[in-house]
Amino acid sequence: MEVTDANAAMLSNYEVYQLLTDLKQQRKDSGKNKHSAGQQNLNTIMYETLKYLSKTPCSRQNPETVKNFLTTMVPHKLTKAEKLQLLNHRPETAVEIQLMVEESEERLSEEQIEELIQKVTDVLPGDPEQEGSAPSNEAEMDEGIDQ
Amino acid sequence: MFVAVEMVDTVRIPPWNFQRQFNDAIAEELNKKLANKVVYQVGLCICLYDITKLEDSYIFPGDGASHTKVHFRYVVFHPFLDEILVGKIKYCSQEGLSDRHFSLLYFQYDEAEQVWVWEYETDEGAHDLYMDQGEDIRFRVTDEVFLDTSPTGPSAAATDTPGAPGAEEGGQKKEAPYTLLGTISEPGLGLLSWWNS
């Protein structure tokens, strides 16, 4: 076996999550008879990875949000690795931004950091449990009254 | 965190799988070979991403199976240097913490409670923030170590007496083929609960 390129492309958590859920669906559909002894490793790694990824922000993303995110990030001039980390982690505080963006104190002013946080939290879907406080409850109540 | 790695390999399809869709049979063989395995200097292989090129298949004398050279891309877990990762603390020891993602971290160790403590000094005085098992932590990757765990020949165990080779194998330590070293000594790193209030 030969490795031609150890770094052909960086993959976002969302892409891997999508790939694994599709693969899982395919394997479920095609039936369990063919998949026995040799597939145990694949099952293990798929289960563990999906378990981890489903608790990260990538489980709530879809291709449009990723595309929107990348277009909104264009004016900030961030490197590929920085944009990837922002996409995978969805930081909500300035401290997290400083960790992921190198030399953020020199490259971004405080307002720019705030703007970045705002854009990230707007474009990328958040955890519904965490944000399930007053605003969404009010919306549900209004709908109930209208009906 | 994840990378697509381009690889080339010769895949053997045994005759009893000839009735299957060729691409599916190739995909299954590749996953059987690589999934959940660490490739030296590359990372932990997760699953097949796609097949880029299939060359001609050959059948060799004496073996009824077909052999095909396949160019493909595989999803590999390989965080880059300085990447921020979030993991869960599995156990603590004197050398460091260990978490789900094969990493060992270095920090202050509290003998009495057998847990790691961050002695945090503020204007009011020092706060001791504990790192308990099962907690989520954020860390930055500082280094990675690949160990070649291929079996070594009998010459490596030359100091054994001929009568006790079994005991020697039993005492061998299981070494991780891929280790990540990380740091949490930066603002924003460490237990998530320290920074989320």
UniProtKB/TrEMBL annotation, chain A:
<keyword id="KW-0804">Transcription</keyword>
<protein>
    <recommendedName>
        <fullName>DNA-directed RNA polymerase III subunit RPC9</fullName>
    </recommendedName>
</protein>
<dbReference type="Pfam" id="PF03874">
    <property type="entry name" value="RNA_pol_Rpb4"/>
</dbReference>
<dbReference type="GO" id="GO:0061484">
    <property type="term" value="P:hematopoietic stem cell homeostasis"/>
</dbReference>
<dbReference type="GO" id="GO:0005666">
    <property type="term" value="C:RNA polymerase III complex"/>
</dbReference>
<dbReference type="InterPro" id="IPR005574">
    <property type="entry name" value="Rpb4/RPC9"/>
</dbReference>
<dbReference type="InterPro" id="IPR038324">
    <property type="entry name" value="Rpb4/RPC9_sf"/>
</dbReference>
<keyword id="KW-1003">Cell membrane</keyword>
<dbReference type="InterPro" id="IPR010997">
    <property type="entry name" value="HRDC-like_sf"/>
</dbReference>
<comment type="similarity">
    <text>Belongs to the eukaryotic RPC9 RNA polymerase subunit family.</text>
</comment>
<comment type="subunit">
    <text>Component of the RNA polymerase III complex consisting of 17 subunits: a ten-subunit horseshoe-shaped catalytic core composed of POLR3A/RPC1, POLR3B/RPC2, POLR1C/RPAC1, POLR1D/RPAC2, POLR3K/RPC10, POLR2E/RPABC1, POLR2F/RPABC2, POLR2H/RPABC3, POLR2K/RPABC4 and POLR2L/RPABC5; a mobile stalk composed of two subunits POLR3H/RPC8 and CRCP/RPC9, protruding from the core and functioning primarily in transcription initiation; and additional subunits homologous to general transcription factors of the RNA polymerase II machinery, POLR3C/RPC3-POLR3F/RPC6-POLR3G/RPC7 heterotrimer required for transcription initiation and POLR3D/RPC4-POLR3E/RPC5 heterodimer involved in both transcription initiation and termination.</text>
</comment>
<keyword id="KW-0240">DNA-directed RNA polymerase</keyword>
<dbReference type="GO" id="GO:0000166">
    <property type="term" value="F:nucleotide binding"/>
</dbReference>
<keyword id="KW-0539">Nucleus</keyword>
<feature type="domain" description="RNA polymerase Rpb4/RPC9 core">
    <location>
        <begin position="1"/>
        <end position="127"/>
    </location>
</feature>
<feature type="region of interest" description="Disordered">
    <location>
        <begin position="122"/>
        <end position="147"/>
    </location>
</feature>
<dbReference type="GO" id="GO:0005886">
    <property type="term" value="C:plasma membrane"/>
</dbReference>
<dbReference type="GO" id="GO:0006384">
    <property type="term" value="P:transcription initiation at RNA polymerase III promoter"/>
</dbReference>
<comment type="function">
    <text>Accessory protein for the calcitonin gene-related peptide (CGRP) receptor. It modulates CGRP responsiveness in a variety of tissues.</text>
</comment>
<dbReference type="InterPro" id="IPR038846">
    <property type="entry name" value="RPC9"/>
</dbReference>
<keyword id="KW-0472">Membrane</keyword>
<dbReference type="InterPro" id="IPR006590">
    <property type="entry name" value="RNA_pol_Rpb4/RPC9_core"/>
</dbReference>
From TrEMBL, chain B:
<feature type="compositionally biased region" description="Low complexity">
    <location>
        <begin position="150"/>
        <end position="167"/>
    </location>
</feature>
<dbReference type="GO" id="GO:0005666">
    <property type="term" value="C:RNA polymerase III complex"/>
</dbReference>
<dbReference type="Pfam" id="PF03876">
    <property type="entry name" value="SHS2_Rpb7-N"/>
</dbReference>
<dbReference type="InterPro" id="IPR045113">
    <property type="entry name" value="Rpb7-like"/>
</dbReference>
<protein>
    <recommendedName>
        <fullName>DNA-directed RNA polymerase subunit</fullName>
    </recommendedName>
</protein>
<feature type="region of interest" description="Disordered">
    <location>
        <begin position="150"/>
        <end position="176"/>
    </location>
</feature>
<keyword id="KW-0240">DNA-directed RNA polymerase</keyword>
<dbReference type="InterPro" id="IPR036898">
    <property type="entry name" value="RNA_pol_Rpb7-like_N_sf"/>
</dbReference>
<dbReference type="InterPro" id="IPR013238">
    <property type="entry name" value="RNA_pol_III_Rbc25"/>
</dbReference>
<dbReference type="Pfam" id="PF08292">
    <property type="entry name" value="RNA_pol_Rbc25"/>
</dbReference>
<keyword id="KW-0804">Transcription</keyword>
<keyword id="KW-0539">Nucleus</keyword>
<comment type="function">
    <text>DNA-dependent RNA polymerase which catalyzes the transcription of DNA into RNA using the four ribonucleoside triphosphates as substrates.</text>
</comment>
<dbReference type="GO" id="GO:0006384">
    <property type="term" value="P:transcription initiation at RNA polymerase III promoter"/>
</dbReference>
<comment type="similarity">
    <text>Belongs to the eukaryotic RPB7/RPC8 RNA polymerase subunit family.</text>
</comment>
<dbReference type="InterPro" id="IPR005576">
    <property type="entry name" value="Rpb7-like_N"/>
</dbReference>
<feature type="domain" description="RNA polymerase Rpb7-like N-terminal">
    <location>
        <begin position="9"/>
        <end position="64"/>
    </location>
</feature>
<dbReference type="InterPro" id="IPR012340">
    <property type="entry name" value="NA-bd_OB-fold"/>
</dbReference>
<feature type="domain" description="RNA polymerase III subunit Rpc25">
    <location>
        <begin position="107"/>
        <end position="195"/>
    </location>
</feature>
